[in-house]
Each structure stands twice: as structure tokens, then as C-alpha cells.
Write a structure and sequence with these properties.
There is one protein chain. It contains eleven helices and ten strands. With about 325 residues, it is an alpha+beta fold.
Amino acid sequence: MKTHVEPEVLDQLDQRLIAALQCDGRLTTERAARVLGLSPRVVNQRLAGLLGSGAARVIAVPHRGAPGTTMLLRIKVLRGRLDTISAALAARPDIPFIDMSAGGDEITAVVSASAGQRGRLVFRQLPATSAITSVSAQTVLHVYADATDWKLDALTGAERGQLTPAPPPSGPVPGLDALDRELADVLLGDARVSAAALAARTGHPESTVRRRLGALLRGRALIPHVIVDPRRLGLDVDANLYLQVPPAYLDAAGRVLAAHPAVHGVLALTGPANLSAAVWLRDLEDLHRFITQDLASLSITSIDTVLVGHAVKRPGSTPSGRPSPEG
């Protein structure tokens, strides 16, 4: 019989380095050492250990799409069929986010696709699947924060300010051309690949690659994102909260939640639950305090809390491909 082993919690120094990478995914050893008051040798050893062991990964994800292109699905599933349905959904490239509830009867999925593709999935494929008892589909109206915005609370404000690159100029995020997409394909697996290695892998001059890479990152067409198991940070509770907020208070509540250190996603939605929040917390007592104290001043009229039993797919994960549900 296999014994479940809880992942070891990373020490304070490793957590500070992860928080530094969240400020700048391509952070150099020298700059991290200077800002954090450490020797370059220690930083180099620790970063090599974190990244080499897979405890942390840095990837680059495209800038999120415009509102209205994404839907949040809550799918009720017969017990015993959760793994099959979630694996089928995970094989779809247009579904970047899937959670299985701890109760074993619900899947939460974010789908980003054309209206036609979303319609076929929501109105034809999922309802025709015998293991699915109900599907709730809500359109995302506004993203207050997503996984790329979340920052581990392990640095001082001054440290974070020194490590974070200057904000991009105002204006629309530039689109990707053929060369940009070649670079993005590589950076999706490792955002810390050097310009020289990128040039070698894509066959373009290093000077061109270096210039285009800088433009993509400065303009946030590509956003570095640190992948780390929250349990390695001592955050054992993963939960999705579905909130009802009067329209007059919706925007204020969304902005407050987006700034909260426990929150790694906030979406304004259509439907009765017009605001969702994804949280990582240390334990259930922390979750209770978050609900009864932190949410108490936000004029929320109803809360539906769903504990996550397994994060099936999050940005940067690569589940094995299986066919999508057809019934």
C-alpha cells in the first residue's frame, strides 16, 4: 500500500527567492543578491536547487485575452467519474484551468475559446455526457487578478519595488508575429532561457532575439509566471469562493480581493454569483478567518465555498492528452 507523503515546506530563504522570481522571472543572480543582502554564491546555489529540482519553474504565458472570451464552468459529476471527466477536459488546449472539488462531485474549469467552440462544449458535449448531472456556465466580465498577479508575501515593500521592472507604457498590448510566437513556444517551457540559447533554438540572430524578447517582456505580451506547489510554501488549503455582491459594491470588492495576499485569482462574472475568488491559505482556521473577517466589510450577501481536492490543470501544467467528452 502506498503511503501519502506531504511535500516538504521550503525554508524562508527559498521562499524569498521564489517571491523575487515572481517580481522578475528573468532576475539575475547578481541583482537578487544585491537587493536581498545575500552572497551571489548562495543565491546561485539556491536558485539552481529550486529550478533544477522542479520545486519551482518559471514559464512565460501570453497576455490574457479581452473580457468576454472566457467562461467559468462548474460541472457536477457523478461520484466515481470525476477522474475520467477531468482528464478529458484537461486534454483540451482551450481549457487552461481545472480543479476537482474535495467533495468529489464538482469540477471547476476555465475555458478560453471562440464562441462556437464554447457553445459546442457547454450546450452539446457536456450535457450529452452521462456522468455529468449539471453544468453552470458564467462569462468572465472582468479579470481583477489572475495567477500571474499573485505574489508570495515574503518580501518587504522596498525589496519588491527594487526587484520589479518598470511598468510598461500605457496602450494596447502588442500582438505576436511569427518570430514572437517562435520565442513564446520556447519560453512557455522555460522563461529563463538565455537570448543566446533562444537564438540557437530558433535559428535567428542573437541580437534580433534579444531585442524582440525585451520588447515582449516590457510590453507584457509575454508574462513570466512562477509555478510552485503552494503546499511547498506552507499553504495547505486551496479553495474557490463564489460570491454575490450588490452591483454598487462589486468593483470595490474585486479590487480589495485582488490586493489580498491569499488571493490568486478574482473574476467578475455573469450570473447570481457575480464574483469569484481563488485563495491559498495555511489551514481551515485561516480560511474561516478570511471568510468571517476579511470578507466581512465587502458588502457580500452570499458565499459558496468549495475546497479544492486536486488542481488538475493550472497554467504551465502538461497533463497527458485524452479525447474531450463526447457522451
